[in-house]
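As agreed, record minuted below.
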Amino acid sequence: MRTVDVIDDIDGPGTDIAIVGMSGRFPGASGVAELWSAIRAGASGITRFTDEELRAAGVPAELVDDPAYVKAAPVIDGVEEFDAAFFGFSPKEAQILDPQHRLFLEHSWAALEDAGCDPKRFDGAIGVFGGCAHSSYMQNNLLPSGITAVMGDLAVGLANDKDSLTTRVAHTIGLSGPSYGVQSYCSTSLVAVCAGASSLAGYECDLALAGGVAVNVPQRVGYLYQQGGIAPPDGRCRAFDARGLGSPLGSGVGVVALRRLEDALADGDQIYAVIRGWAVNNDGGRKVGFTAPGVQGQAAVMAEALASADLSPADIDYIEAHGTGTALGDAAELAALQQVYGGQSLLIGSVKPNVGHLDRAAGVTNLIKAALALRHDEIPPTLNLSEPNPQLDTGEARLDVVTRLRSWPREAGRIRRAGVSAFGIGGTNAHVVLEEAPLVPRTEESPRPEPLIWSARTAAAADEMTARLAGHLAGDGREHRLADVAHTLQAGRQQFGHRRLLIASSTAEAAVGLAGATVLGRAESRTDRPVAFLIAGTGEQYPGMAAELYVSEPVFREVLDDCRAQLRRLMDGADPLAEMLAPRTPPADGTLGALFGRAPEPAAATPTGVLQPALFAVEYALARLVQSWGIQPAMLAGYSLGEYVAACLAGVLSLESALALVTHRARLIDELPAGAMAAVPLAAADVLERIERAGITGVGVGAISGPELTVLSGEPQGIAAVRALLEAEAVPCRPLATTHAFHSAMMEPLRERLTSWIAANVPLHAPRVPYVSNVTGEPAVAEQVTDPDYWAEHMCAPVRFHDVLRTLLRQEGEPALLEIGPGQSLGAMARGHADCPPERWPLIVASMPGASDPRPAQAVLAEAAGRLWLAGVPIDWTGYRQDRPVAKVGLPTYPFQRERFWVNPPGGGAAALPGGALARDTAPSAGEPIPSNGRAGEGASVRGGAGDGASRAAHVTLMSPRWTP
């Protein structure tokens, strides 16, 4: 046998293509994972029908009783069903849409999700390449039903035309890359893969969806065995067996997502396998007939693919063959393999004995099997081989058909590679050279709590996704890193209105949480909700509160280090952050408790000159961390010292000026006599009246935090007298751990000194971000905040935080409130506000645990990000990751909520024979000329083989109202 010369003068594309996602539905397998399990186990997906099932499907009794009628077919379930609402189709539109189009659309979406690609956020163009079979649904169901009179010829035609398959996907999903149909009969989907790879190599697109689909309508019927045809007499494909008589024709769909390898590696995509080379050619008439296979064309396309990959035959371990099991088809393919691989040992196999011949989806199914074999380090067995075809040995190549599950491990010094073939009627041949995915070294980091987020268009789909994730992480996903799972969900899934959130610290914890009651949910259509920052003042800080975030969050650490260095210069080398960065200590018993929502301070209060600069730095760093996630405040509001942080974030003060001002102000306050403060659950007017009536002096209102929540501030003896007075009247009055009487008359001696110092040392600017004034409770204006006396008034006047909250709560857009600082005291005030009844409570999110909250700071921060996402706040998840090493992993894809959308054929007659199967005596033998009446529009039929010289009985009928089944 002549050996084909290895081609060495072809310039390959020079670009490796990664298979980063895949999806499909196959006979006996509802998805890619199920397909792998089935073929690995040597299971057949061929369905056998009872006589009762066939009669119910409309098969005439004389056919059912005919000994030549084969009661089997490769079928897929649910072709009548479709999630029309997900894709925006009306019920009528869904009814007339070819099931091939439905399946290709659903699995294109699923392949994108498997690739971790949200098309709305993908940075690049996405192309679509694929093909489908003639619409037997239109031929056998729609046209006989007369639905064109209702929907119109154009609508029905577009819903079933081959040419609209890929463009419908592009239009529906919103993909802007090249999109066109491919048609080459049985090699269609592998040719589509080659077209997608070429488009990527030529930078026409940046991700390509490629594949094919074929659905026979009706499905659940058998066929008449025809001697010399492609379909065998017993429904079994025996590829490379001496007794092979063909492969049953069936339904299936497969779609792969492709990227340039360099891009896939840069983005941490999961990679099933790498396409090193590919080629497409045509036999060019060098064969006995149009439907016959061409040995020279097949050999040439394999050699061309090897050359484009810059490889030799010795580099290939395995060939996933076309393998239809017909005498002529197998003979031609084996002859071509002998020519190319003369002198080499080669393993071969075929998936067709498992699933049948899937027509336009055959080639991509071969590709998926070969890619999975590389991924799982195993070659599944080829079924039904009992008597090897003697042509396996008629050449210099040693061709061994894999008939048992075979280990295919990685080996040092050798890269595993496979070839994949598909050959079509008319002689268009395609071959792809696959290579194992490169091993990517991973940098292990300490695990941290992660927000796992997912969503769906309906509550039922969201709940089903929850269950799927739970099952996956408890099973096949146990080896995933939790950070990779979180990253895949955050970056690779589109956001819908029914949202779910789980915070977990390990994959095992996530699996348990998903199966339990710890999942948070929200129905929310928004993706643009604004955020207001609520920035705390002193009162909730505690030793060690910044320690964990300092270690775990690079942005927080970088900003805090900057503040720390500047503060040390301002404070003669002293480190005000030492206590907050020390190991966290257990909280003491509360002194303010539920009344004010603030956790207690340590028994020995930190001096103001140390505390306030330190707290400013921590809250400023925390705000900058949140902003690095893409969360930019639409409004800012601070409580007391928190307004200085707000002013700095708003651009009124530079960071350098703010640190200097806070440090100088705190130093001045430390010069004052000690003061005291207490919280009282009474209105300010009420408590002042009681104080005046009792003749108590030296006490005033330091803050109005609610309609019946007032903070008193003043001389220690005056506060003590008020406490005694109120306790005698059974009114609780809780002292605050403080060093001075902030926001009281005791601050007045500092007014002029602070004003003068600011005027001389601090440049003040108009705010670039709106924020609310403590002094007025209204949005701060440039005239106020650029006046140095404003900041002195701010130090002396009461904090009108109740009015601040009213202003915030009346903002348009219903902003979420993110509390910057430890605890949730400001959020507690907002929930109790008169302008905020329970039915209108805004989302209020904590970003740091309070002193009495035992949760890790990372868990609180992760929950903050997740809760904001639930509410529709856009999160930059890349910013949230902060360059931590993550990769995309395979996770369950969208759980489509399918419903039946179907037009039944009238009377059942059209369901008798799938694709218009012909009587036994009308089929041409292999290689014969194809008869045709040549009259377009009058039921012109084409009878031909399936790429191997055997004839496939199939009607290819032009659209015409004159057609009859």
User: Anything to note?
Assistant: The longest strand covers residues 273-282. Residues 608-627 form the longest helix (20 residues). Residues 6-11, 589-603, 909-965 have pLDDT under 50 and may be disordered.
